[in-house]
Write a structure and sequence with these properties.
Radius of gyration: 39 Å
CATH class: Mainly Alpha
Structural class: alpha+beta
Mean pLDDT: 86
Strand order of the largest sheet: 1-2-3-4
Helix content: 55-70%
CATH architecture: Up-down Bundle
């Protein structure tokens, strides 16, 4: 410790020829050091940690994989199927006087063949199913992106809840310190007979109330810190660093509303509507005939056809009656398409309402900040004036305490309003997909 304390003196002695320049260098270094080494986790870093931690995002990635596999299954319906069959049949020998020209009458019937089936026409159901599954794959990608947006909103809310409570605690500590100074001043005045003991008791009551509020805030902070640890997977005591700028001027509301189509929940709804329409096409296609090409290659075959190595068949299947199930499936598909249309309409209206509400909130946040800045400055000047007047015997101690309380209440409200303004603007950015990092999805 002594070496560290003497180090500056040794440095100055060494640099005495250029002491002025060296002093300027030290001053610049000291001014820049806090900026260069600002501790704490920024909002974007917190979001990245939460992405790595989130089971919801990982689940969405698995849902994407499942949807992609269903697409591959739909592709497989267009391709031929090949299967191998081998069998050996024994049956009771026939009487010697029964002719055995028929293959089915042989007592031993070996069979080994390859069968290939190529769908030629099935009412275009397979192509509709292919388009349907592709739309669902795209919808799952949008769902994953929407999950990122929702996670980001949760992260931002928790981030500013923690910062706001911590700032409240600092403000309360400062207010308690001012009241303790006030108490010490009053005790001095009581000793010389210029103040009463009741004035000290008033201040002590105020200090006790403030300390109770501090304990309540610490409980709230602990809850928010536990939520931070849950979301990020980091230590709950990790310091946070607010690097977000205060929101400036807003674009016209129509500019934000025009970005509704970019929202992942809106895009996912529209793609599911497309998938529902393709499902209707597939259901209607079930009413149409189907044509298949079947081919067999024989390795072993009994009877008179044992030398015939292959055969090819074109099969036409016409659905005539299925108990009304095909018509029912078509009506069900049409109802699902109508449901998807209603869902898209609802999502779009909710998105518009969210953006309008957030926009107005940000506008009023700015107006509230301006008003609070003015009222806080006025309350501060009022408190300073009341202290001066009290020393001159022009006002009572109660008036000084009221002025101090009014100043601190305004200061706390101003600090909270600053964080709320940032949070509401960030929510508006997220609601309009106008925030960097929301679309930078890693490869699943």
């Amino acid at each position: 410790m002594l070496k560290n304390q003497n180090a500056p003196e040794r440095i100055l002695r060494i640099a005495s020829p250029n002491r002025l320049a060296f002093g300027v260098f030290l001053w610049v270094w000291a001014a820049c050091a806090p900026v260069l080494a600002a501790p704490g986790l920024a909002l974007d870093d917190y979001f990245k940690a939460a992405l790595d931690r989130s089971e919801v995002i990982a689940t969405q990635s698995e849902l994407i994989r499942q949807a992609e596999e269903r697409y591959q299954q739909a592709v497989g319906a267009l391709l031929p199927t090949v299967s191998g069959t081998a069998s050996y049949t024994w049956q009771e020998p026939l009487a010697s006087d029964v002719p055995t020209t028929s293959t089915t009458l042989l007592s031993r019937q070996p069979l080994a063949k390859l069968t290939a089936t190529q769908p030629l026409y099935r009412g275009f159901r397979e192509f509709a199913a292919l388009r349907q599954t592709q739309a669902l794959v795209d919808a799952q990608h949008d769902d994953r992106l929407n999950a990122r947006v929702l996670l980001f909103k949760d992260v931002a809310q928790n981030f500013y809840n923690v910062l706001s409570i911590e700032q409240d605690l600092r403000n309360f500590d400062e207010e308690i310190g001012q009241n303790l100074d006030r108490e010490a001043e009053l005790k001095t005045r009581v000793r010389i007979g210029r103040s009463r003991d009741s004035e000290i008791l008033n201040v002590q009551t105020t200090i006790g109330t403030l300390r109770a509020q501090v304990e309540q805030l610490r409980g709230q902070l602990q809850v928010e810190r536990e939520a931070f640890a849950f979301l990020s997977g980091l230590e709950s005591s990790t310091p946070l660093n607010d690097t977000e700028a205060m929101p400036g001027g807003l674009n016209p509301l129509d500019d934000y509303l025009a970005r509704i189509a970019l929202r992942p929940d809106v895009q996912a709804g529209r793609k599911r509507q497309t998938a529902a329409q393709e499902n209707v096409t597939s259901a209607k296609g079930a009413h149409l005939p189907s044509v298949d090409l079947n081919g067999n290659y024989y390795f072993d075959r009994p009877g008179a056809l044992k030398d015939v190595a292959w055969d090819v068949q074109i099969a036409l299947t016409v659905p005539l009656y299925s108990g009304g199930s095909l018509q029912s499936k078509t009506r069900e598909a049409m109802s699902q398409h109508t449901q998807a249309e209603l869902t898209v309409s609802q999502i779009g209206r909710q998105a518009e309402q969210e953006i309008r509400s957030l926009y107005q909130t940000v506008v009023f946040d700015r107006l509230q900040l301006d008003a609070l800045e003015k009222s806080t400055e006025a309350a501060k000047k009022s408190y300073q004036a009341q202290r001066r007047d009290y020393r001159l015997g022009l006002v009572t101690n109660l008036e000084v305490l009221q002025a101090l309380t009014a100043f601190q209440v305004n200061q706390r409200a101003l600090d909270r309003a600053r964080y709320n303004a940032k949070l509401d603007f960030i929510k508006l950015q997220a609601a309009t997909m106008n925030r960097a990092g929301l679309r930078d999805t890693p490869t699943p």
